[in-house]
Amino acid sequence: MIMHAVTFTFRPDTTPEQVRALAKELGTLPSLIPALRSYHFGADLRLRDGNADFAVVAVLADEEGVRAYLDHPEHVRVVETRVKPIVATRSAVQMAIAD
Amino acid sequence: MIMHAVTFTFRPDTTPEQVRALAKELGTLPSLIPALRSYHFGADLRLRDGNADFAVVAVLADEEGVRAYLDHPEHVRVVETRVKPIVATRSAVQMAIAD
């Protein structure tokens, strides 16, 4: 399987409402994108200094699953309308994990 | 529970041997750190442009578990000897996830 992990930092003017709207729409994706084997996302808990602001961790079966998720029209829509307006930096990795 | 997700970029002179040594030592941590409920790590598969180079995703029970992992002497040793010599940037998030 493949684990897709992304961390984001937000622009300084990002509002809690924008983050809530992002989380709400991300929460709809597992029911819309069958390729998602598991899906976790959320704001940083502020336990450590220097952290980023938000993360998404998805598990997909294979490379085709990664494409099915990342390129899904509803995922692309959430990225364009809820992520891009507030994100300063993004750091993503797809890594192989044991089945 | 808390999911701890970190992405790293490596310095340009990082060798495959250094990455293998890092992965080998990370692989010993679950047996040494009982707080780790699950532990995944690995190099980016190069499926997408602009990705980071390596990620670690750990699940801990709670904030105490996060500390038990991050501050564990063996984890600290691996960070000091295997991570810091090769890492250019690090982006971490701890987020709440459903039990």
TrEMBL record, chains A, B:
<dbReference type="InterPro" id="IPR011008">
    <property type="entry name" value="Dimeric_a/b-barrel"/>
</dbReference>
<protein>
    <submittedName>
        <fullName>Dabb family protein</fullName>
    </submittedName>
</protein>
<dbReference type="InterPro" id="IPR013097">
    <property type="entry name" value="Dabb"/>
</dbReference>
<dbReference type="InterPro" id="IPR044662">
    <property type="entry name" value="HS1/DABB1-like"/>
</dbReference>
<comment type="subunit">
    <text>Homodimer.</text>
</comment>
<feature type="domain" description="Stress-response A/B barrel">
    <location>
        <begin position="2"/>
        <end position="95"/>
    </location>
</feature>
<dbReference type="Pfam" id="PF07876">
    <property type="entry name" value="Dabb"/>
</dbReference>
